[in-house]
Amino acid sequence: MSHRFDLRVYYEDTDLAGIVYYANYLKFIERGRTEFVRSLGIDQVAVKAEQGIVFAVRRVEADFLSPACFDDELSVQTSVQKVSAARIILRQSVLRADTVLFEAIVTLVALSDSGKPTRLPADIRRILT
What we know:
- By secondary structure, the chain is of the alpha+beta class.
- Helix content is 24%, strand content 40%.
- The chain has a five-stranded antiparallel β-sheet.
- Strand 3 (73-83) and strand 4 form a beta hairpin.
- The protein starts with a strand and ends with a helix.
């Protein structure tokens, strides 16, 4: 299962050298994850309201391979690597055409209203696997 989210680099995304500021790659992959989950029919607002569960990033392993620049057209590729009772592990890449610029392994956890780890709802686990 894979998802693609396209974006363009704006001036606000860059540093003085005209390349994407490193922290903005985390924003790019966040947008990609959000659109991925939405494309699966998972309504995060409803999950929070009805089940009291939100998803939070627990860990990010990132590799910055090559810079993106102002006005580049990029795509964020998101795919599921593993789903367990309480975690989702995703592989995300930012590409310019066929060139991988950034790669990350992102671990998400489900949290209850009180902020404690909890099990993923069965329907969401089923959708992701």
